[in-house]
Amino acid sequence: MRPDDGPGPGGPGPLAAVPDAIYRLDAEGRFTYVNAAAEQFLEHPAEELVGRRAGEVFPYMVESLAQEKYLEVLADGRPREFEYYYEPQGRWYEVRVFADPPGVSVFFRDVDQRHRTEAAREAELRRLSSVLEALPSATVLVDEDFRILTGNRRWAATLAVPSRSVGVPGTDYRAAVTLGVSPTDSSAIEAGLRRLLDPAADGAVQPFEHEFPRSTPTTNAWYRLQAARVDGAARAVVTHTDITERVRGEQALAWRARHDDLTGLPNRATLLDAMSEALAAVPEEGGVALLMIDLDGFKTINDSLGHGIGDALLRQVGDRLTETLRPGDSVGRLGGDQFVVLARRCDDSEAAALAFRLQEIFVRPFVATGISVPLSASIGVAVARPGMRDGHELLSDADAAMFAAKSMGRDRVHLFSPGLREAARWRLEVATRLRDEAIDQLVVHYQPIVRLDTGAVEGVEALVRWQHPERGLLPPDSFLSVAEETGQVIPITRWLLVETTRRAVEWAAQGLPLRMSVNISARHFSAETLVRDVRTALHESGLPAEQLVLELTETSVAEDPTRAEDQLSVLRRLGVRVAIDDFGTGWSSLAQLFALPVGTLKIDRSLLTAAEQVTGGDGGAVLAAIVGLTRTLGIRSVAEGVETVDHLRMVRAAGCDLAQGWLLGHPMPADEVPRYVRAVQEAGGDLCALAVAGTPVTSLR
Ligand code: C2E
Ligand code: MG
Ligand code: MG
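Above: the input record for the complex with magnesium ion. Below: its predicted structure, written as tokens.
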């Protein structure tokens, strides 16, 4: 822009109307023209200035920046633009100098206000920058257009990529912070900041926070972004705290809450969720099946080989199960030695087929630290009924089926049926009641044990019953297996030992010294409190040890023979007698049994009936062989389940020492025992003879 030639100094002309102040100087620095605005700024009328050298009127200008620029323009003809602080007035001017041969035109205006605001802003920025520098997290100051005004060193080191001009001052903040961030997070960040930076928003606008993951080729981190508006201005301080460690910790915790530590498989809670989800899915997809897999005898493995090997085996089972599944099916561990498979699109037969397939993973033995361990599992299968929504229900069905499989022996598969649910409900009731009140409802019945030579009642076997308030008197089969599972059998037996020894002492005081036989469960052996419990009972009642017989089933002894042997030896030394119960129902070898300090063998009823059914030959021969062997070993034998006179003859012929059975006396309540024994004594004392003679023993009570 070149100012028009004016007609004369300060005279009217086009430039007079221009709001900018304008003057012209010739090559010697003399004023040739001054417009009205310039007259005002320079505080001299045009006629005073025109013709005079600028340096003469304004000595301050000599060797000033203004003079320097003027000379430069004169020299090269290119325009100059600069800000100039005119000291006499103490104000800032913006000055533009153009070549206007033979001299120059100078345009200038007062920018003092603007200059001061900017300077203040810059000072503030510098101040803010130093504050930002002190912050430990990556921090930037952004303006309303998302432009980065400044950022601290931490920002430059972590989030900015100066080589690509990302995140450096002057560039768009969003480009830097949303690099490697999901579109959802990116737009959340942008929206949050936009609200904060809205020039129309007042200073009280709430700070904005957002947590997000950010992954670039070099980093994988989590950040918490916190942005706050600076004092009223449309600018925001944005900090980015690296929260990776915390988030990872939380994620690990969350994972652990949903998974089993040992195998890494989903845990019970996760499985229940998956079940509910599967059950809620469209029914056209077919049924949901749950397979409960319980390893057989795993406790023994753990106890004998140690938990290290036990754990390794469980992991391998988890791996093999996982490998066997179809895509879409899932496996989890409920805890202990129980695994669960959730299968979708399954009917009964497909679920059963899957169970058999799962059984095959146990064909190959498992190997842990060089030891090869054969494993098997009992599998319960339940398929959801139409309308079933609750995962717990399916789980308890599968559990009931598994329980049924277990009770059939090892390595079995059992399919759920509604009858099992009733059984499961009963087990649950028993488990709760036994824990809370039922121990007070237990009663003991006593069954006579009779000498086969004299027919005298030598002792009684204590048999527990539950006087159930609604269901009446319940036999031990209906609740003892549950008590075994829950461990309640131990306090029950402890109570029973005290009760029965006390009873025996009471009867002895009445002149009826009856030997007391008490059944002991396998659980009691593993709990290792048996010796102490027996000692306490003997001590408290005062019963002589040899008047107490502990009956153990051969299977309970076979489970852990060494442990059994240790405890039995201590008991034997105390003087307590030990009997093996239900002989003939297990598979333990006689040799193994006779290695134990056992004084009595109780031959199971099933052996008697089996012997009875051997037609045309001498069924008693097997019996006689067993009895003969026990006798040479100094072990007495008791025939159980003598119901008929034929039974009595057979067991007598076989050489049994003692007999027990309905023929000789049913189990009876405690207060009937003295009467019964006295009645036998009064009738001659030979119960066997009375029985053979057909005297109904019930009439003796
Ligand atoms: P067990 O120790 O073999 O007891 C003998 C069982 O045979 C008793 O059944 C008894 O009533 C029954 N019995 C006796 N004579 C005859 C007979 O002539 N014919 C037939 N068919 N049965 C006869 P009960 O009382 O139902 O007990 C069943 C099992 O429960 C017992 O078998 C024993 O193993 C267990 N048991 C009973 N009381 C206790 C206890 O206090 N503790 C433990 N751990 N187990 C117990
Ligand atoms: Mg018994
Ligand atoms: Mg028995």
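Notes for the reader.
The pocket of C2E (ligand 1) is lined by residues 447, 462-464, 475-477, 480, 489, 493, 496, 519-521, 551, 581-582, 605, 640-643, 660-662, 667 (CB under 6 Å).
Residues 112-134 form the longest helix (23 residues).
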